[in-house]
Amino acid sequence: MSTPILICDDSGFARRQMARSLPDSWDVDISFAENGEQALTLIREGKGDVVFLDLNMPVMDGYQTMEEIRKHDLPCLVIVVSGDVQAQAREKMLALGALDFIRKPIDNDKLSHILSSYGIYSGETHSSGAKLQKVEEASQTKATASERVTSTEEKLDACREMVNIAMGRAGESLAELLGEFIDLPIPNVNLIESNELSMAVAEINRNESVSAVSKGFISEGVSGEALVIFNDTNSQNIVELLKYPPSASSDKLALEALMDVSNILIGACLNGLSEQLKVAFSHTHPVLLGQHQGLSALLSDNVQRWGKLMAIEIGYAIKARDISFDLLLLFPGDAMSQVYSRLLDDSYDTDDKEGL
User: Fold this and answer.
1) Which strands, in side-by-side order, build the sheet including 100-103?
2) Strand locations in the chain, DSSP E?
3) pLDDT value for 354
4) Are 228 and 326 in contact (CB under 8 A)?
């Protein structure tokens, strides 16, 4: 008898990755949900004996979903699959009743080990006829990523998931440094013209006075720029959190804090991107774009050289300290095509179990 499996993630790209990671010999009936609300409905319909649950989702996130599962004692086993790998995130979900916690992107061997250790999958079952037929259909129609994924929205979804994983790495590094839980958002990914950048960011960061640090990165075929934008009202809170000795002026300490946080955030995020894209980035030295200025003034001189670009905004927050700042990743021109092809060619090198 097939095991009802539910994969809950707001990214179609991530859902496909998760489905492909399931052991081929496991007899399963797979359902999909885009958020926790949909997942709860499917669990109540008996379609989620085993649930693979993401954390950062719209409508209802993984934490809220797990709380509802526990509150109503819903009959399912939950394994968290997330790019947010902070120790506090893991501890909270395990305390709510999740079986285990898997880091994105999926390590297939680790997944099989977890399933086996909890007696969910023994490795002795065989694929059902329906699943075999689906695999055969996938093999017959298999094509390159550029042929299979053509819509802009699908490409943006793939990039959003890539950044979601890298964002989690950066959040983990920052949490370890600061000893605080970092609230991670759903990344905003947009294709815009360079002259629209200031307007797009202003819609997210409405503070009148900000400071920003810029750092370029480049590899063969993939290049870009990372900017960290700080609300000036947060500066003192960040200095206090970093526990700098009061041996310098407040302005100097604020600048040091800004540079330190930017280096950690950008470095960890770029490491996460390089792992997924299988490239090695060379980094420029961080540059202070400006302090205590309007956002448009900081960005105006910085974006003149860009044409059409992919802008990715990540809004980090430390709510317990009333601190927030934005990481902005910019990929110009042909770098976008390289990002797509590297992500998608790697992702479609195995059979797609979510449909074609």
Assistant:
1) 28-33, 3-8, 50-53, 77-82, 100-103
2) 3-8, 28-33, 50-53, 77-82, 100-103, 188-193, 210-218, 223-231, 282-283, 287-293, 308-318, 323-332
3) 43
4) yes
Say which amino acid occupies 253: L
Tell me which amino acid residue 239 is. Answer: V
186 with 285: CB under 8 angstroms?
Answer: no
The reported pLDDT for the residue numbered 208 is 63
| pLDDT tens digits, one per residue of 14-45 | 999 999 999 988 999 999 999 999 999 999 99
Other C-beta atoms lying within 10 Å of the C-beta of residue 107: 13
pLDDT reported for residue 125: 41
- Measured CA to CA, the distance from residue 172 to residue 327 in angstroms comes to 15
Helices 235-242 + 250-277 axis angle, to 10: 80
130: tokens are 């329906």
Bin 290: left if φ > 0, else alpha if -120 < ψ < 50, else beta: left
Cβ-contact 297, 189 below 8 angstroms:
no
Token pair recorded at residue 244: 């700098």
State which residues of the chain have pLDDT below 70.
124-150, 198-208, 247-248, 290, 292-306, 333-334, 336, 344-356
Q: How many CB atoms lie within 10 A of CB 331?
A: 24
Burial class (CB in 10 A: 0-12, 13-18, 19+), 282: exposed
Question: How far is Cα 244 from Cα 23, in angstroms, rounded to an integer?
Answer: 50
* pLDDT score, position 47: 96
Mean per-residue pLDDT of the chain: 82
Given the structure tokens 């720029």, which residue do they identify? 225
Instruction: Please give the structure tokens belonging to residue 27.
Output: 């007899």
pLDDT of res. 38: 98
**Which residue is it, tokens 């900000």?**
210
- At 33 the pLDDT is 97
Cα(108)–Cα(23) distance, integer angstroms:
8
